[in-house]
């Protein structure tokens, strides 16, 4: 299977759906969990890696203009349920954080492509940091449902920021936690850990989201493992989320050895780790 064959795209619906807030609570001092009652077959049509554009509520104090992209964190267990896990970081997410149970919210999606999990896969590795946990949580559930073993490398500022339970949601995994606070999340240390795991167990695929540094590290490592699929869900800032405004384009390598700009919202957000062209660092 080639990398290109690994990507799956669902039929997309750019219609807006009115949902009801069924649950909304803080998970820690920065992240909130949001459960929406979504109309009809929306949840069943949503796949791991896809995202929605959330319409932020407007108040006298907060008037966010654009919709905000959010990965789907879970679908179910009840039918007609969509879950999100989000970092309250700026104007839009602050406005969303004010929603009360029973309030309504308009969402657009599901948007974008999905992670690929081959039917023959026996073990995968997920390398997550920050909001990447929310994006990859459904992938971990999917692997657990199919009996695929998971090696999870979780990176956070400190143990209190890790959200291990929120990530695994009861799924079995060999978990390795690394932290900025004790230096174990340093690039060299994580690279050694990833290489050790790939040597110890045969992995079919490696997935990541949430850190450009981890992405570049995995790109380096995977150059030595040509048979291992590598996929990343990119979190580029975006406006329309539907491929029109081109604000989320990123540079990627092509199979022909050229470079091309692709829209993260439309051709992604899931891409081959090998194809990402690293961000230029200034200064
Ligand atoms: C496909 C996709 C899926 C995402 N999934 C999640 C998710 O599941 N949970 C979650 O918490 N966040 C997720 N994000 C990031 C989320 O969209 C932003 O944090 C949010 O739009 C910020 O809006 P704001 O108005 O609160 O903050 P702003 O005032 O717009 O920005 C506040 C801070 O957040 C940073 N930021 C803004 N947009 C992004 C972005 N797209 N990616 C990374 N940093 C950003 C800004 O640089 C700034 O530092 C996702 C982004 C994309 C593109």
UniProtKB/TrEMBL annotation:
Keywords attached to this entry: 2Fe-2S, Electron transport, FAD, Flavoprotein, Iron, Iron-sulfur, Metal-binding, Transport
Cofactor dependence: [2Fe-2S] cluster; FAD
Classification via CDD domains: DHOD_e_trans (cd06218)
Keyword Transport applies: yes
Any one GO biological process: pyrimidine nucleotide biosynthetic process
Cofactor: how bound: Binds 1 [2Fe-2S] cluster per subunit.
Annotated Pfam families: DHODB_Fe-S_bind
Residues covered by the FAD-binding FR-type domain: 14-117
GO MF, any single term: 2 iron, 2 sulfur cluster binding
Annotated binding of FAD, by residue: 68-71, 92-93
UniProt-annotated binding residues for [2Fe-2S] cluster: 240, 245, 248, 265
Similarity comment: Belongs to the PyrK family.
Protein name: Dihydroorotate oxidase B electron transfer subunit
Species whose genome carries this gene: Pusillimonas noertemannii
């Amino acid at each position: 299977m080639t990398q290109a064959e690994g990507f799956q795209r669902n039929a997309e619906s750019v219609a807006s759906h009115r949902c009801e807030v069924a649950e909304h609570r803080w998970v820690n001092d920065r992240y909130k969990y949001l459960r929406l009652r979504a109309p009809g077959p929306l949840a069943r049509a949503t796949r791991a890696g896809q995202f929605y554009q959330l319409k932020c509520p407007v108040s006298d104090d907060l008037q966010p203009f654009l919709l905000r992209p959010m990965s789907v964190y879970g679908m179910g267990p009840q039918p007609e349920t969509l879950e999100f896990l989000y970092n309250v970081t700026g104007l839009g997410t602050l406005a969303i954080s004010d929603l009360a149970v029973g309030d309504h919210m308009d969402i657009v999606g599901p948007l974008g492509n999905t992670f690929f999990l081959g039917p023959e896969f026996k073990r995968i590795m997920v390398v997550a940091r920050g909001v990447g946990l929310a994006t990859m949580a459904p992938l971990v559930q999917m692997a657990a449902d199919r009996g695929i073993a998971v090696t999870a490398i979780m990176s956070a500022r400190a143990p209190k920021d890790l959200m291990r339970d929120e990530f695994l949601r009861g799924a079995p995994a060999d978990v390795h936690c690394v932290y900025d606070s004790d230096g174990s999340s340093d690039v060299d240390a994580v690279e050694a850990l990833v290489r050790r795991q790939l040597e110890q167990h045969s992995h079919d695929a490696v997935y990541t989201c949430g850190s450009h540094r981890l992405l570049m590290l995995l790109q380096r490592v995977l150059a030595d493992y040509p048979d291992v699929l590598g996929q990343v869900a990119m979190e580029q800032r975006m406006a329309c989320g539907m491929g029109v405004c081109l604000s989320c384009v990123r540079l990627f390598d092509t199979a022909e050895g050229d470079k091309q700009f692709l829209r993260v919202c439309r051709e992604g957000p899931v891409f081959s780790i090998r194809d990402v062209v690293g961000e230029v660092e200034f200064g």
